Amino acid sequence: MHINGRRGRFAVGAVAVAGVAALALSACTTSGSTSTSSAAKGGTVTVAVVNDLTSLNSQTPQGNLDTNGQVGYLDGSYGSGFQYIDNNYKIVHDKSFGTFEKTSDNPLTVKYTLPSNAKWSDGEPVTADDMVLGWAMQSGYYDSATLDPNSGDVTSGTQYFTPAAGTAGIDQTSYPTVSNDNRTITLKYAKPFVDWELFNPLAQPAHIVAKKAGLSSAADLTKLLKSLPKGDPKNPAPADPTLKKAADFVNTGYDITAFPTDKDLLVASGPFVVSSWTPGQSITMVKNKYYWGDNKGNVDKIVFRIIPDANAQVTALQNGEVDIINPQASADTLTALKNTSAKVLTGDQASYDHLDLNFGSQVFSDPKVREAFLKTIPRQQILDSIVTPVNPKAKVLDSQIWLPNQDEYANAIKSNGSDAYGKVDIDGAKKLLNGATPTVRILYNTNNPNRVDEFQAISASAAKAGFKIVNAGSPDWSKLLPGGDYDASLFGWISPGAGTSQIPQLFTTGGGGNYNRYNNMNDVAVQTQTTLDKDELTKLELQIDTATFKDGYGLPLFQLPGVFGVNARVDGVKYMGNQTGPFWNFWEWSVKSSKK
Fold first, then answer.
1. 409: which DSSP letter?
2. Three-class SS string for 158-180?
3. pLDDT tens across 343-371, in order?
């Protein structure tokens, strides 16, 4: 899942910032169009986005943001390549990019092959060396770290790469087998892996990572990786300095605050590459001349315009400043869109807003204080003010795992304990506090009107029970989220809509999305990655869902409705409710008139 500008984002399992229990939603489209093989070529499409760029690697906890992931979807560094997820939430293999196939069920064995003409955007070949690095980054194979169960900090040994999706599932693969022509790797799993089909072994270029680590070539990096043993937390070896240097570069070297002067950071494998960025204003991506796949796209240039305000997005669309918008849905936004000539596409999102309590916080170390605070959360009031005007049938979300249109949701809410927080209970909260007046610092995005409304509603209600609420909101909330310097946080997750890798991402110690340091379901969360029986998997997921309400993890608030606005000059845009949003089928876009 991903943290998303309006929300948050989950990473996809195999390059995931990821998802919760297969959020397979059925999107509803009110209008739209499809492209044809005779689509016009060339031109520019400009898309309004809420968040600015913060990193060219969305696979890290701090880079796990929607805009970063959408840029990564276009340049190949996030989840695109061997496969993608369509707007029916089906996994589609892109055989023109490369092939992968399961060659054995026992043990699970998967073979990945690249074509001979595969090249990075700097003209260097894409080879098995790059896939070995991608596997190393996502598997945790070399880690010998022991993590503090409460803070997630390393207490002994070494943690090299820090993928946002965590390593569960991939972590039980052995070192890959590499073909003689250096175009194929084969992964062998010690146990079944539910999301094997979502794993993508390409991310950052090995020749660039090797260079930053002081090595002369991608082959030298592979030679180093092959020579190092599997990490052993029970008997940790000293950190390998070269691998540590490579990992540190991958973990933080792609985080940026201005357009990079180091062009190595821009090298990509996708159909588009970042060509310019003016912070706070726009990101421009142009065609990668070396891209070898079929999904090159019709347009020459894609521009991201950073426009946080939904009304400003509608105005920009109406004025022809942007071609596509995906604003935070509200009654005002929908009304304004319908008064324009734009196509309006609507549907559910694989996304939900939530309040999380920080288990590393002193105030919430007491389970009674957690319970008391959650009893004050006016979830129905929040829903009525934010979502009901858009979707009158919407209800408060009562699961941390499933969304209302998933089959398991109705049964889960009957037994998961969510009814304990069905209504605000100020008297019950006061009784639990027994005269105490705890101070609670709440982190949220101050640039997001919905989060501001949520914070204000929660503050007013919690104060009635005696809580002292401190406004810890910030426009830089996403950068502050991993640090844990707050007691509670308000944000949202948006899922890829397929797979289960979101579960360990959120609910394991060291999970890339476990910002609130909850560790009571570690073992169960890991089991979800190797449980192929659907009924057994559902039981495990229900255990987690129930525990989160019992333990005072926080509260889900509501599922988000979604809306796209598309002007008449652009064809091919189709509704998608996952973290790629309107970009999911960018290769089908075309423009009716050139806009250079």
1. H
2. CCCCCCCCCCCCHHHECCCEECC
3. 999 888 888 999 999 999 999 999 999 99
